[in-house]
Write a structure and sequence with these properties.
Elements: H1 2-17, H2 24-35, H3 43-61, H4 63-66, H5 75-106, H6 112-132, H7 146-157, H8 166-176, H9 181-205, H10 213-243, H11 247-267
Helix pairs in contact: 1-2, 1-10, 2-6, 3-9, 3-10, 5-7, 5-9, 6-8, 6-11, 7-8, 8-9, 9-10
């Protein structure tokens, strides 16, 4: 029962922090530290399985927009959907190549010192970018050039540094090249689909351990919770950025970094 409670908590954390620009790694490090090691045999697989649940939430919410075969779409709308997918794929190429080469290497930097530093760095970056952001040049993916999509994809590469936040780096990149807040958030959601699905699928099919019935139950629990919470988190962010800027998330990142530093230097 304890493992299911931990899966529930981690599923909630993943569902919220994967889509908000606040660093899921930073939260996971702190939560895992507070809860202790899980202990079930599929621990190394758990994060990737719950990420799969988070991705399915994006597909669910944006299924019609993402589906180029929808019978309710006109020929032009289907063409536009394919164009959107090509831009998403183009933006994912840098992260797919560089991430594949350096992901294992960067995992050695997954510690509270690096995470705290990147939480603060990108927190400050959000505040500065919002202060400088005056004009919104692009509000729809159809208006975005392939060059712009590729530049945003290069920013996504930064997310291999622990504590950066995949959504945070892509949103910042999109805003720097003139995208509106709403477009930056939405494009960030779409970029997650091929990248996160590919990594999660690869980890699952190459897992060499033996799954017990308890492992499967814990994995499914975490995935389902991450899926449901992701639905809520994505809807929240979409509505939030229509009325507010990202400064709040910048300040939150800085505050979280101070909590992490305080915990590991004063309490741990």
């Amino acid at each position: 029962m304890l493992e299911y409670i931990k899966a529930l908590i981690l599923g909630i954390v993943e569902g919220i922090t994967e889509w908000l620009p606040v660093s899921s790694t930073g939260h996971m490090i702190l939560v895992n530290e507070l809860m202790g090691n899980s202990g079930f045999t599929a621990q190394s697989l758990f994060l990737y399985v719950i990420q799969l649940g988070a991705i399915l939430a994006v597909v669910t919410l944006y299924f019609k927009k993402l589906n180029p075969f929808s019978p309710s779409k006109t020929k032009e709308e289907k063409k536009g959907t394919w164009d959107m997918w090509f831009k998403v794929i183009a933006a994912c190429i840098p992260a797919g190549v560089i991430g594949l080469l350096f992901n294992d290497y960067m995992e050695r930097f997954e510690n509270w010192q690096v995470v705290s530093a990147t939480l603060i760095l990108y927190g400050i970056a959000f505040i500065i970018v919002e202060n400088l952001s005056k004009k919104e040049k692009v509000t729809e993916i159809s208006e975005m050039s392939y060059k712009t999509a590729l530049i945003i994809g290069l920013f996504q590469v930064l997310s291999i540094i622990p504590g950066t936040s995949r959504s945070g780096s892509t949103i910042l990149g999109a805003m720097l090249v003139g995208a509106s807040r709403s477009l930056a958030a939405e494009f960030s959601f779409f970029l997650a689909i091929p990248i996160m699905f590919g990594v999660s699928f690869l980890k699952i099919v190459t897992y060499e351990g033996v799954l017990t019935s308890t492992d499967i139950g814990v994995l499914l629990c975490g995935m389902i919770v991450a899926y449901v919470v992701s639905l809520l988190a994505i809807k929240f962010l979409v509505n939030f950025v229509k009325k507010h800027d990202f400064k709040l998330f910048g300040w939150y990142r800085i505050a979280l970094a101070l909590v992490v530093i305080g915990y590991f230097t004063l309490i741990k």
